[in-house]
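Office hours follow-up: a student asked to see two folded examples consecutively, so here they are.
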Amino acid sequence: MKFLDLAKVMVRSGAGGNGCVSFRREAYVEYGGPDGGNGGRGGNVIVEAVEGLNTLIDFRYQQHFFAGNGRPGMGRQRSGKDGEDIILRVPVGTEILEEDQETVIADITEVGQRVILAEGGNGGFGNLHFKTSTNQAPRRANAGQPEVERTIWLRLKLIADAGLLGLPNAGKSTFLAATSNARPKIADYPFTTLHPNLGVVGVDNAEFVMADIPGLIAGAHEGKGIGDRFLGHVERCAVLLHLVDGTSEDVVGDYDIIIHELEEYGGHLADKPRVTALNKIDALDEIERAEKHNALQQHIGGPVFQISGVSGEGLTPVLRAVRAQIIARNKAEAAGDEEAETWRP
C-alpha cells in the first residue's frame, strides 16, 4: 500500500428539504385545514477514525464527498426523509485543517472519534406548523436551509512512542529492521527511505512503537530534501532516538545539523527528550570508536550509546533508555489526568 500523509478534499453537506403547503381534501369535509409536512434534514459530513489504516491514500482517488439532501415535505402531514450522512474514514492521528493548511479544526487521536465537518441544513416547516387559533389556513411554508460547502486538508501524523532521527544513510532503517518486525528498504545510498515506517520494538518483555522517517539534511526546515515533510510524524513521540553515523568524518557536525533543523522546525521538537547513539561502530576500530564517542559525548554533555544495527551490538541498552523515557512520559500524563479529575471547591 502506498503511503500518503496529506490530502485535500472538498466536502458538502446536504440541503434541508422544503416544507409543503397543502390542505386536507376529503369528501364531506369542507374545511379540512392545513396538512403540509416538514422537509427532511440534510445529511452531515463526518470524519471518523478507524482501525487498520495508516495512510490517506484513499483520498488521492476521491476528493469530493457530498451528503444527501433532505426530501421535501408532502401533504397528509408527511415529513420528508432526512438526507444520508457521509462518513470519511481516516487513520488515527489525522489532523483536519482549514484550506489555509494552518488552522486546525480537529485532531483525531482515538479509534471511533467522530467530528462533523459540515452540518446538514434543517428542513423547512410545512404550513401545518404555522396554524394558529387566529390563522386557521396558513398558506406559507419555509424553504430548507442550504448546504454547507468547504475545502479541507487531512494531514496524518503517525502515532508512535519513539521516533528515529538522523542524516540520510545514518542507519535508521537498519536499526528499525534489527529491533522490530518492520522490514523497510535498506541500501547503502542516501534517501533510501522515502516514507515513514513503523515498527513494534520489544525489550524486557515490553513493546513500544517506533517511527523511522526519511533522513534530514541541512536546510530541511526551508524545504530542502524530503525529511522536513515528515517531521510531523514524530511530534507525538515521547522520545527521539538520534542516530549519528559513526563512519562520518565529523560526527559532532552531523549531530549539530539535526539539532539545528529541529530548532528551526519548531513544534517543540527540540524540547523533546532525546537519546543519542553512535551507530555503525562495527565499521570502526577501537581507537576510532573511542575518539568519536568521546568527542560526541563531550559536545553533548551527556551519555552517548555505541550501537550497530548490523552486528546487534549495544541495541538492548539503548532500547532500555528509550523505553525509560516512554514510561516517564506515560506516568507524567497519568498524573496530569488524575490532577485534572480531582475536585476542588
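And the second, which I mentioned at the end of office hours:
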Amino acid sequence: MKKLLCGLLAFVMLSLVHVQAETRKDNLLLRNDHPQEYVVVKGDTLWHISGRFLQSPWKWPEVWGVNPQVDNPHLIYPGDVIYLTWVDGKPRLGVRRDSGIYPRARVSPLEHAIPAIPLRDIISFLNDNRVMSENLLKEAPYVLGGRGERLISGAGDRIYARGSLLEDQRRQGVYRAANEYKDPDTEEFLGFEMVKIADADVAAQSEDVISLDIVKSHKEVRVLDRVVPTEEVRIQSIFYPKPSPEGIEGKILSVLSGVRDAGQFNVVALNRGAREGLDAGHVFAIYRRGERIKDPVTKEFVTLPQERSGELMVFKVFEKVSYGLIMQSTDVVSIGDELRQP
C-alpha cells in the first residue's frame, strides 16, 4: 500500500511538472511587456502588431483566435482592437471590431486591410525583379536599337529586337541582367537576376525582327537588353508565416539594393527555391558568420562562433533562388550569412 501511494504521488508530481513545463512553453510565446489590448492604426502590419505580444512575431497563426464576428481573422483594419485572452491555458489573440450603442455596419475595402508585412519594401521586387535560367535568357529576343539608330531609348520611343517572343502576347517587359547567382558551396549556376527596365507593346513582327513601342520606362533601354513576357503578378498582402522546411539550410546570395550589408526591411536573395520546397511565408533564422581574430597569446587566427542576427520571411520563390525580407535584425546582415530553421 505504501509503495502504491508513493507511486501515485510520483505520478502526480510528474504530471504537475509536465503541466508547468507546457505552461512555461506557452508563456515563452509572450513578451514580458505585452499589452492586454492594442488598437490597430494605419501603417501597422500583422508582424508588427504580433511583435507587441509575442517573442516570435512570425508565430501569429498559432495564436490567432477564431472570432465569429470576423470572416477572416487575418484581415484586420485600422480601428480594430487586438486583445489577449487565454483558452485552455494557452494564449490567444482575438480581434474586436469597434462598436457603439446602436447596431451599425462598417464597410472596409480589402485594399485597406492591414498587410502581413510592409508591402512598400517588397512591391518593386514583386513586380520588377525575376530570376531566369541561362537557357531562357539565351532564347529571349535582344534589343537591336531604337528608331533613328538610337542606342538609348525611353518612354514613347520605338525600339527593335531580334528573336522569337517567348510568349505571343502584346505587352512585353524589357529586362537587364543585374547579377549572376552561383551557389557559394557547390558553385552550381542558379540563375540570372533580371531587373525590369521598361514595359513595351508589340507593334509589328517581320521575320525575326520585332517592333516595340515603349509604354513606360524605369531606366533607359539599351542595346542587348532582353525582351521577356511581363509577369502577371497578383500583389499578395496576406502571408501565412511558417518555419522553413526541416533540414533545409541556405545562405544569403545578395542584397537586392545593390550593397553588401543589410538590415531590417532590406530584401535579400537566398540560394534555395521551389526545388527545395520553399514557398512564400517560410521563415528563416539568420546567423552571422563568425569573425576571424588573432589570438594575442598564441598569435594564431581563431574563428568566433556564429551568432543569430535576425529573421527573414520568404515572399517570392523561383526554381533555385528566393527573395526574402529581413523582418528583424540585431546585427548587420551580410552576403554569405547562413540561414537555418528558426
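Two things to take away from it. Residues 2-27 form the longest helix (26 residues). Helices lie at 2-27, 46-53, 60-63, 123-128, 134-139.
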